[in-house]
Amino acid sequence: MAPKTILLILYPRTEGTSFNYDYYIQKHIPFATEVWAPYGFQVPSITRMDESSGYHLSAVLEFESREAFDKAQGADRLKELMDDVGSGSFTKSEPAFSTGDSIV
């Protein structure tokens, strides 16, 4: 079995930023699931971070393999999904993205 590929997204808690958790959970994540489900996207883990952490939210997104993740980056509606990230609908915080492959 190939290791899962993880996409970690962190939304920093910077001066003047807020986070609309309801929009993110009710609109953005279902949209991401719709866009990426054909590419091995699995149920995400979403965490509201403590204020002291310096982040509003962390999202851990799993894909069934590196190949599936790479294909997801070419999804037909990826631009639309990323436009939602940049729209300010849930935050003006600039997300940090990091990927890796699970080892356990």
Automatic annotation (TrEMBL):
By its UniProt entry, which InterPro entries does this protein fall under?
Dimeric_a/b-barrel (IPR011008), EthD_dom (IPR009799)
Q: Enumerate the GO terms in the molecular function aspect.
A: oxidoreductase activity
The record's family statement is: Belongs to the tpcK family.
Q: What is this protein called?
A: EthD domain-containing protein
> What is the protein's species of origin?
Extremus antarcticus
